[in-house]
Design goal:
28% of the residues lie in helices and 22% in strands. The chain is an alpha+beta fold and 107 residues long.
């Protein structure tokens, strides 16, 4: 699966403990999308990344967590957090289709 190779290659440079990562931190954020394959998978994401980028540029507040909504007709409307790498969304209880039921944790 080619997306796994790209994730691993980029992720090694995106770890917060990595010196290169600290240099990139002023202008780059990296998020892995759970449940999303290379154009396939159980989750078909919709993300308003342009608004997050605009807010970052205009206010100087970099995004930590984004939200994605599912466009898959079988699960339309379920939401998940997009956690800043290396964090990963962990189900903490509640409605499994609601972003509020997840917390970003280091994996």
């Amino acid at each position: 699966m080619d997306d796994a190779a790209v994730d691993d290659a980029f992720a090694s440079g995106a770890k917060p403990s990595n010196r290169k990562s600290r240099a990139l931190d002023d202008f780059v954020r990296f998020y892995l999308m759970p449940g999303v394959g290379h154009g396939t998978g159980p989750f078909h994401p919709a993300i308003d990344s342009l608004s997050a980028l605009d807010h970052w540029v205009e206010s100087g507040a970099a995004p930590e967590t984004l939200q994605m909504s599912d466009l898959n007709t079988a699960k339309l409307g379920r939401t998940r957090p997009l956690c800043r790498y290396p964090a990963w969304p962990k189900f903490v209880g509640g409605n499994v289709t609601d972003v509020a039921s997840f917390s970003c944790v280091d994996r």
